[in-house]
Please model this.
Amino acid sequence: MVRRPTLEDVAERAGVSRSLVSIVMRDAEGASAATRERVKRAADEIGYRPDPRARRLRQHRTKLIGLTFTAGQEFHADLLDGVYVAAEALGYDVVLSAVTPHRDEPRAVRTLVDDRCEGLVLIGSQMRAGALIDLAARVPLVVVARRVRGVDAVRSDDTAGTVLGIEHLVGLGHRRILYLDGGGAPGAAERLRGYRRAVRAAGVPELISPGGLTEREGAAAAAELVRTGELPDVVFAFNDRCALGVMDVLIRSGISVPQKISVMGFDDSPLAGLAHIELTTVRQDSVGLAAAAVERVVGRLDGTLADQRPIDIVREPTLIVRRSTAPATP
Model:
């Protein structure tokens, strides 16, 4: 087993005392600029790296933000990168804990609390509101992509997002716009509300079918459309993954997109922009959402927001038009 270099090794290499090396590594006062340069050069030469865990223990703080997310959700993956960037800029590290079919959210949260995370960011949390309020009383937390009264939340305006989508589709001349609902998923009620509001304003029929969060659920919905032969002008799916499942089944069935039927998603995940997909979608500002969530939880931890009541931070989505939607044919 390879031994890791120590402070003593750096001191010996630089020709200074161990205490002076400690001063340099802690960026404390008491060492000249020339000494600092010599010590850091010696550390680089022998491959020494300070142990951040030991520093946190000395400070009696972990400076860790725990993050839960659902494995396999691409939009959640987009948020992860933004959380890392925002946390590092504020001097915090991030610990991940995934929610999977065999690992529920409460267990993912317990792991982060047991790891001494000072604050939590929960992406797409599906825990009961009461449980989240109780948890927030013990550890600062922010819920992302869901509104929860009594808890800090950061989310997109999902209602406005579906309104944007319907207005685009109606503007293309489409009348029969089928919406695939997200069921009980975070944001699903708001997106459905936006759909109903927009089609009512446009004077077009309301067409709603069960959808879901995954390609499999989108494929099942599309297979039922193909089986009945009752195709709408457009399928507007709850999210991009559901929309991709719809496109796959339609194309395999010889129904061209968008010549025969248009397809639209929500999120603007990385797959949506691929050249062979070109999915029209509603983009959520993942970078802005992540930054707002981290800033909120850090504000709670550092005391600047400690006495403020929980708030609901809402960011506006944008419409991204690609080749999966086209003007209605006569």
